[in-house]
Write a structure and sequence with these properties.
It is a single chain. The protein is an alpha/beta fold. The chain is built from 14 helices and nine strands. Strand 1 (13-17), helix 2 and strand 2 form a beta-alpha-beta unit. The chain is globular. It starts with a helix and ends in a 22-residue tail after the last helix. 46% of the residues are buried. Bound molecules: iron/sulfur cluster and FE2/S2 (inorganic) cluster (FES). Residues 242, 246, 262, 264-265, 317-319 line the site of FE2/S2 (inorganic) cluster.
Length: 371
């Protein structure tokens, strides 16, 4: 290990994408267009080793995600292995395919927290987005089952032009279901979602109104419901410190075992991702070139390189910088100081009503006018 690699601080969180399979078909899915196949998924024993290595590296929180992690038949064993490794374990689920009995088995195996994605506060609109009749009802039922088991619950709502006006209703839903936290997060335009960007992008007035509402809702729910919100960065001129900085706090393991600094990192050409099948997690974190590529600030160009905010936002999102400028070392165009800032304004201006491309061939559930 080089001297520099030895001084890399440990990550706090690991996102384990247990499978890319999913029973829903949301148009805003940020998973890659080419999904990894079931036959290539890591087995239980390998995930168990990865969890032990993660805990040894210093990881505290494990997020079990997908696709839909409940499609893994060994999910209870996976949770038990995470608990045995000493990790705080959060299940991120669509709730579809997870019944009360299995949730109880997960709780008994040591699951610490459940996060349920909800497409909308309106049942028909939610099922329409998920393209799955009955999905909303299953989500609400699982939320109640989680609370009854004493599991802390977070509701996660992805917002876009079609539902950003219903944030108060989403917050009310979270409170009614007994959640302790709601995450309201704007679409990440990676993977499948890119094809729907113009149709999903909210308008500036909608974002301004949403921000005012969230401030009021936070005041109203202080002490009973935590409201986290990630608004689009296309209007503010302020880039997001994506993941708290590349290779700084977290890592992602894909279903087949590739280890990524962020789940969209494979969109940046030229990065080679090491696999847990070939390397120990600590060696990947500290020594793999993909993690070193944008760690810290030395890779930066101007205006980031001399900017007083460079240790705060780390130049924004590398994947967005590449997607918009073709140069992953460029300042994220979301920043008002970026010479490419006009590109995000153009994207926001290009928002237009149009049909969504769902991530499934299942037929529509309700009136397509809702999209
Ligand atoms: Fe952040 Fe770079 Fe913009 Fe400075 S110039 S605020 S470091 S993105
Ligand atoms: Fe990859 Fe932001 S999504 S760095």
């Amino acid at each position: 290990m080089t001297g520099r690699a030895a001084t890399v601080p440990p990550p706090l969180g690991l996102l384990a994408e247990l499978t890319h399979r999913c029973p829903l078909g949301c148009p805003y899915c940020s998973n890659p267009v080419a999904l990894e196949h079931r036959a290539d998924e890591l087995d239980t024993a390998t995930w168990t080793r990865v969890f032990r290595e993660a805990a040894g590296l210093g990881v505290l929180q494990l997020h079990l995600s997908g696709g839909e992690p409940a499609l893994r038949r060994d999910l209870v064993e996976i949770v038990a292995a995470a608990r045995a490794a000493g990790l705080y374990t959060n299940l991120i689920t669509s709730a579809v395919g997870l019944d009360a009995r299995r949730l109880a088995a997960l709780a008994a195996a040591g699951l610490d927290h459940v996060q349920i994605s909800v497409q909308d506060s309106d049942r028909d609109a939610a099922d329409h987005v998920a393209r799955r009749p009955g999905a909303f009802a299953r989500k609400a039922a699982l939320a109640r089952e989680a609370v009854a088991l004493g599991l802390p619950l977070t509701l996660n709502c992805v917002i876009h032009r079609g539902n950003i006006g219903r944030i108060p209703e989403m917050v009310a839903l979270a409170a009614a279901l007994g959640a302790g936290r709601i995450e309201i997060a704007h679409v990440q335009y990676h993977g499948w979602a890119l094809a729907n960007r113009a149709a999903l992008m909210p308008r500036r007035g909608q974002v301004d109104a949403a921000e005012r509402e969230i401030a009021i809702l936070r005041d109203r729910h202080r002490g009973d419901l935590v409201i986290d919100a990630v608004m689009p960065d296309h209007f503010s001129g302020v880039p997001k410190p994506c993941l708290g900085g590349w290779g700084r706090r977290s890592l992602v393991v894909t279903p087949s075992g590739l280890v990524l600094p962020c789940h969209a990192a494979p969109t940046i050409p030229g990065l080679a991702f090491w696999s847990v099948r070939d390397h120990a997690l600590e060696s990947i974190w500290r020594e793999s070139p993909a993690f070193a590529a944008f760690r810290g600030t030395e890779w930066m160009r101007e205006p980031c390189a001399s900017c007083p905010k460079r240790e705060r936002d780390f130049g924004g999102c590398r994947c967005q910088a590449f997607a918009l400028t073709g140069d992953a070392r460029a300042t994220d165009p979301a920043c008002a100081l970026s010479p490419d800032h006009g590109l995000v304004a153009a994207l926001a201006a290009a928002a237009e009503d149009g049909p969504w491309r769902w991530r499934t061939d299942r037929p529509a559930t309700v009136d397509a006018r809702r999209s």
